[in-house]
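User: My collaborator sent over this chain with a note saying "see what the structure looks like." That's all I know about it. Can you take a look?
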Amino acid sequence: MFKRMLSLAAVCLLAACSNSAPPQGQAQPGVPRVALVMKSLANEFFKTMEDSARAYAGEHADKFTLVANGIKNEEDVAGQIALVEQMIVQQVDAIVIAPANSEALVWVLKRAADAGIVVVNIDNKLSDDAMAKEGVQIPFIGPDNRAGARLAGEHVAASLQAGDTAAIIGGIPSAFNAIQRAQGFQDALDAAGIQVVATQAGNWEMAKANQVASGLINEHPDLDAILCANDNMALGAVAALRDAGKEGQVLVCGYDNIGAVRDLVKAGTVDCTVEQHGDQLAIYGIDYALDILASGGQPADKETPVELVTAESLGG
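Assistant: Without extra context I'll predict from the sequence alone. Here is the result:
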């Protein structure tokens, strides 16, 4: 029933997109068309991804043309399904996707693969169980989110003592990268003897994380740290601490290394963040899709780098 409801919503949105969206990535003879399907372009991380992909496409116009789209927010699963449906109708050669949901997108991506479209998964890994159920294998090109989050968690823990308290604000609970980042934080805090008093979903959004952080501050007035699974949510947590008169009293970390948080890390307002090279993730995926198109090779997962970002590494 859930799949049928999503499909109906996708068809409706597809019709709207087809009537209003300007043409992109016009086909050129002998040049593959690659569709980049992202999550919310309101998130600086994905806007950076889009800008870099467009620049890359401009530099390699003889190798591929790009169709780039994103959804209105991180939870707009139906909207992302509609975009994939649109790319199937337009008969693109490849789809590179950062899925909003690790399970709900698999069936429509299977349709794309069955239509002869090369599909490459970036950023948020699709569920292995969901792919097995649909009988499809889609390669993942992206970072080890658990390892990246552990780096941030260890840096936060180094400024705390065993018995101190921390809370984790995670992404959308069904997203694989959200699960992995929460586990990475937990790994580091457990190893340091830090007590995790709460783990709540901020759904990747600044406003939602601000509400969650405000509640955590009220419920746990002696809280020592808030670990956020992306930088948008870290900004929401910082604002909540500022409103509560506790800015600088509670450690905050993020993940993504967007400009606004990088500045706060350098200033010492945010303890650290994690660089997963969002400006390169789409390019990694595009290059891999082009390789598969050229060679017809058997796709396999590939891990991309992550690095801890601190005031020291930024020269702050």
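A starting point for your reply to your collaborator: The radius of gyration is 20 Å.
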